[in-house]
Amino acid sequence: MNTSTRIFDATASFDIDPQVGFTPLAPSELPVPGGDEIVGELNAMAALARLRVASKDAHTPTAPWVVETHAEMLQPTGLPNADLTWVSHCVPGTPGYEFIPGLPAELDYDFVVYKGVSPSLHPYGACFHDLADKLSTGVIEYLKAQGIKNVIVGGLAYDYCVKTTAVQLAKAEFNVIVNMAATRAIADNSAADATRELGNYPNIRLVASAADVAVALSAL
Q1: Of 131, 152, 166, 220, which has fewest CB within 10 angstroms of its CB?
Q2: What CATH number was assigned to the domain covering residues 3-56+99-113+125-218?
């Protein structure tokens, strides 16, 4: 087996919450600026990996953390596993729940995580259902059982779910590559905080595009 084949076989790409509800296509939900522009890069990075996995928020509109307006968001809730208020978003059966057009159908992924199904849970990372990282979603175990060593990540939003998932994967001892062209942030200040936090992990690399992902993989 040559080196490029070995790296490909040990690599997965992870589309984190690339849903319409996080794009300007759903302005009443959580429209991340430019969130609808990441599809090409997500597809390009998937071509560099043997497996393609995804996560989807799947929330009830009556969860205790739901507020009516964007002005009421980001306030502490006092709940142990849903720390901040958010407007309703990514409700199954609504357009906001669906993947952004141009991405594969759910059944075409190798593994899909459904996040926040319980009203009392609003996790950010895709690897655990709770905020204390105790109740696994199974994706770490799946990737390890498949012999995956390297995970390329992108999706929405960079400063919350992408950042947290990258950290969870790094703690699970994967080599993590964040494709910055395949993600967008809610806000500049929280994006800067996310970048600083990711810099604390030697096994997380931030690269500009899928072309740079290929270079980073070849260096592993």
Answers
A1: 220
A2: 3.40.50.850
